[in-house]
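Sequence in, structure out. Go.
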Amino acid sequence: MKNIHSCTLLIAFFIMMGTGLVSCSSDNETTNSENVNSIYAQRVTTLPGNDANPYDEVGWLYNELFDTYYTNGNLGGTVSQIASQVQTIADANTSFNLIKGSPYHNVSSTRVQYLVEHATTCVNDVITASSMSTAGKSSLTSFVNSFITFLSTENDCDVIYQKVVAYENEVLHSVALNNTDKRIILTTTSVTRYLSYRNNKKPKKNTDPDWTVLIGNIVASTEGAEYGSAEAATMALVTGIAQND
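Output:
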């Protein structure tokens, strides 16, 4: 069994070699679905991808933007500066432009700052304010809270991966959740799968435990998903960077 660090190195190697992670379809609200499908159709399914999740390209995009940002020498700054840097990287990314909806909503620095400053309470705040049904809100809240607790004791990347995939399978087959619930939840879990693998990519400059960083990323992807897939990826990344600095 490999630990999270070894998985991170493996993923980085695959990315450098040009091997990608597969997704079977695009955001239903994206007008460029055929283009998105053509991008992911040729990719080999490998951890931490899950081609059963129709929004898996969001996690893949997060992964691409993450790598590009941290290989860029101009890192950090204010939340506004970080958001601008990430947006510049995203605008130059083919995958981002193919799943970018119209209109596209830029990352709100004010909202990112709020999530950073309220890491221990933002889960309920963001999910409660979402457009999901009561059942959807309850389901995602329970998953996020249990997943963060789970990560505090588990460091095996295969086990972590399987936990997220198992929940995604439940969501996909649930008759209690509507289409909006599934879109927002599966977008969030897609980012969650990738970011939990990449959590140790950039060492933190503070002594906060890992779960505070993960919460910011996770709920930021939920908030971004209210607008679309592209927003979920950029909102999650900007929040994670801001929380990590």
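Check: The longest helix spans residues 179-197. DSSP finds twelve helices and no strands in the chain.
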